[in-house]
Amino acid sequence: MRTEEPVYPASAKPLIGERTLTALLTISMAVSMLQLFLVGTLSPRLMADAGISPTVLGLTATFGFGAASLFSLGAGTWVDRFGARRCLIALFVLTAVALALIGSSAGAVTLLIAVTLGGLPQSLANPATNKIILAQVEPARRGAVTGWKQSGVQVGTIAAGLPLAALAAWTGWRGAVWTAAGISLLIAVWAWRALPYAPRVDPAAPSQAQGAKTPGVAVLAAFSLMLGAGISSVNTYLTLFGTQRLGLGPVVAAWLVAVLGTAGFAGRIGWSSAAGRRERAESLLIPLGIAACTAGLLLASSAWFTPLAWVGAAGIGAFGVAANAVTMVAVVRHAHPSRAGRDSGRISSGFFAGFAVGPPLFGLLVESVGYEWGWVLVAAEFAAAAAVAAFGLSRLTRPKPA
């Protein structure tokens, strides 16, 4: 397929069509974060069987996403240097190892080691998939393909909330996690056979260092920090909120995560397609942040009127989760191919840092003053993201003095 500046050599023809490539990239995003989605969805069983406390549950996100944030600072350079194909295969193998450790864990220490290791595939996901899109998808289709592959994160939440949660009810939570590990290894084989080979590239070489610095990356990283803090709290505690505060059974409470994932899936595709048709995709971040804030307040209100929990979960998926996809559309739209990995890594680092700090703060509020104030905190984080976008974008679009 035509690109302005291919990352792969011209002789490296795609071995699969665009639809199959999009499916593989979507699955890559789903698998990269599956370990933490499973920990959140299976949290009632983990707490009962492995003695995991609410605070430790919050620390799983801190360790996992904290590691992902730190690894993301270098992951873009790794992808630029070693190639997206190699890094994508490594993503699946590392995820399988992390899932196997989770399934074998007998307490908090092993669980925290496993989710820390899981930070590596998370850090590789966006740089590798964005690099492949720039190499293999023609410009007019990049926004739509980016939206589909970003929706893969929601495929992961759906998989954790529906089939794997149901499997856990039949085989136990360990059987569900081990099954997910085996599937990840099978997908690694598929990626190894399907993706074209690309030679190593030295990102310091002159031919690779001529791209101008991408404007707005720092703003997008700061926006992603606040956005990630809110989303991670919802992912981690929504099922537990359903069982402990709303009185739902474990399976029904897991459906809240499935609603979040389904709405996020549709929202990422829809909003990314809309962003791809705009000259400035990032202009959508302000209204999306405000809408996500409103959805967080609905979750707070659901403590008194349960049906609002379903509306709030859907709203956070459709607007808050979708906003992350729009940031990646902006990167794919504006980044020079030689900087795509590094720019994606910087934004992902901010997003994962938010994922690391959000759940512990939420957990402290829950233990001290209850879930209602935890959801108010989530709403405030989304509002702060919208404010960062509004301030940062106004500076970017302000005319420079003569």
UniProtKB/TrEMBL annotation:
<keyword id="KW-0472">Membrane</keyword>
<feature type="transmembrane region" description="Helical">
    <location>
        <begin position="21"/>
        <end position="43"/>
    </location>
</feature>
<feature type="transmembrane region" description="Helical">
    <location>
        <begin position="216"/>
        <end position="240"/>
    </location>
</feature>
<keyword id="KW-0812">Transmembrane</keyword>
<feature type="transmembrane region" description="Helical">
    <location>
        <begin position="55"/>
        <end position="76"/>
    </location>
</feature>
<feature type="transmembrane region" description="Helical">
    <location>
        <begin position="176"/>
        <end position="195"/>
    </location>
</feature>
<dbReference type="InterPro" id="IPR050189">
    <property type="entry name" value="MFS_Efflux_Transporters"/>
</dbReference>
<dbReference type="GO" id="GO:0005886">
    <property type="term" value="C:plasma membrane"/>
</dbReference>
<protein>
    <submittedName>
        <fullName>Predicted arabinose efflux permease, MFS family</fullName>
    </submittedName>
</protein>
<dbReference type="InterPro" id="IPR020846">
    <property type="entry name" value="MFS_dom"/>
</dbReference>
<keyword id="KW-1003">Cell membrane</keyword>
<feature type="transmembrane region" description="Helical">
    <location>
        <begin position="344"/>
        <end position="362"/>
    </location>
</feature>
<dbReference type="InterPro" id="IPR036259">
    <property type="entry name" value="MFS_trans_sf"/>
</dbReference>
<feature type="transmembrane region" description="Helical">
    <location>
        <begin position="252"/>
        <end position="271"/>
    </location>
</feature>
<feature type="transmembrane region" description="Helical">
    <location>
        <begin position="374"/>
        <end position="393"/>
    </location>
</feature>
<dbReference type="InterPro" id="IPR011701">
    <property type="entry name" value="MFS"/>
</dbReference>
<dbReference type="GO" id="GO:0022857">
    <property type="term" value="F:transmembrane transporter activity"/>
</dbReference>
<feature type="transmembrane region" description="Helical">
    <location>
        <begin position="88"/>
        <end position="117"/>
    </location>
</feature>
<feature type="transmembrane region" description="Helical">
    <location>
        <begin position="310"/>
        <end position="332"/>
    </location>
</feature>
<feature type="transmembrane region" description="Helical">
    <location>
        <begin position="283"/>
        <end position="304"/>
    </location>
</feature>
<feature type="domain" description="Major facilitator superfamily (MFS) profile">
    <location>
        <begin position="21"/>
        <end position="398"/>
    </location>
</feature>
<dbReference type="Pfam" id="PF07690">
    <property type="entry name" value="MFS_1"/>
</dbReference>
<keyword id="KW-1133">Transmembrane helix</keyword>
